[in-house]
Design brief:
Helix content: 25-40%
Number of helices: 13
Strand content: 5-15%
Structural class: alpha/beta
Shape: globular
Largest sheet: 8 strands, mixed
CATH class: Alpha Beta
Radius of gyration: 19 Å
CATH architecture: 3-Layer(aba) Sandwich
Number of domains: 1
Distance between the termini: 44 Å
CATH superfamily: NAD(P)-binding Rossmann-like Domain
CATH topology: Rossmann fold
């Protein structure tokens, strides 16, 4: 006689505050619910161009008196514009701009060194900077630009900061938010051809999907490796909104997504009418992921968060949550940056 025993994954609990959030929920609404968690916190945000999600997120939380906001971005002139906008919202918040160019591993190290030299406890890191579906190009280190900018650079940057943050004497926890996208569905990690054969096999949307899958797996790895040390890490799908991220893309570029979705059987996206979010709605999940106390529950560590709710694993494609792929990606990333991070 053969007996099959099934061990279901614990159900994700949804708090009353969490269940009230909808796709129309605004960043201001979530921030109001999280004002106690925002107050007096130090928050590091990558990518801070005016009009972008990072800048809008910073302005929303500034109203609730964080102690300090660090803006890490490639263009310091744009960061200063955002810093001024933050100061207009809340003059008491300390704002500092740091140059961060995710396309250069050397400069990523320099940015991390600058931040580490501040000896300041960081409460929340939001890896928000990224690019979407450009023509093929490579970083200065020879990495396909989307994988380099969206994953490899943030992987190195975050780990270099962790080496300092974990050594600071504090009982406070650290939350790391990696901005992903439901575009992760377009590609798993291409372990045998992650660099697209130096461009010969390049597809802009497959490359974007790979980089967004990497954001999800990186969050899973951080949760697995550092959850016991007070680190909570989640990935986020912010929804679709009009930001500088897509300013160089034309409608025909987006039309290239359809054949990939059809080939992979993503029927829910066939003929899908895009629901655009307002700038405020688009950062609601940023705020939720960065501050909502419900995510302190261990079962949510490593979660993929959308519409201000952690998503049940049954709704997430396997390549975005597989523990073995997460560990393989960690090892691959260590090899690319030529540095090991053992925790």
């Amino acid at each position: 006689q053969v007996i099959f025993e099934y061990f279901p994954r614990p159900q994700i609990s949804i708090s009353p505050k969490m269940s009230q959030y909808t796709p129309e929920t605004t960043g201001e609404q979530v921030a109001a619910d999280c004002q106690a968690q925002i107050k007096n916190k130090t928050v590091l945000i990558t990518g801070a161009s005016p009009g972008g999600l990072g800048a809008n997120f910073a302005k929303v939380i500034a109203k609730h008196e964080p102690a300090s906001i660090l803006l890490a971005t490639r263009d310091l002139n744009k960061a200063e514009i955002t810093a001024k906008e933050i100061s207009e919202v809340s003059p008491k918040v300390r704002v500092r701009s740091i140059k961060l160019d995710l396309t250069s591993l050397k400069q990523v190290r320099a940015a991390a060194d600058e931040i580490n030299s501040l000896n300041e406890k960081i409460d929340v890191i939001v890896n928000n900077a990224g690019i979407m579906a450009p023509a093929h190009s490579k970083t200065v280190d020879g990495i396909e630009s989307q994988f380099g900018t969206n994953h490899v650079g943030p992987f190195l940057f975050t780990n270099l900061l962790l080496s300092k943050q974990l050594g600071l004497s504090s009982s406070d926890k650290l939350r790391i938010v990696n901005i992903s996208s439901d575009g992760y569905r377009l590609s798993p990690i291409r372990f045998e051809d992650w660099n697209f054969d130096d461009g010969k096999t390049y597809n802009r949307w497959a490359a974007y999907g790979q980089s967004k899958t990497a954001n999800m797996l990186f969050s899973r790895s951080l949760a697995q490796k550092l959850g016991h040390r007070g680190v909570t890490s989640v990935s986020v799908h912010p929804g679709i909104s009009q930001t500088p991220l897509s300013k160089d893309l034309k409608m025909e570029d987006f039309m290239e997504i359809g054949p990939i979705d059809r080939a992979q059987g993503h029927a829910s996206h066939w003929g899908h009418n895009v629901q655009y979010k307002t700038p405020s709605q688009a950062v609601a999940t940023h705020v939720f992921a960065a501050f909502h106390p419900s995510l302190d529950a261990p079962e949510h560590n490593g979660a993929y968060v959308a519409e201000s709710k952690p998503q049940n694993d049954t709704t997430v494609h396997c390549w975005g949550r597989d523990a073995i792929d997460a560990e393989r990606l960690w090892a691959l990333s260590e090899g690319i940056v030529d540095q090991k991070f053992d925790y």
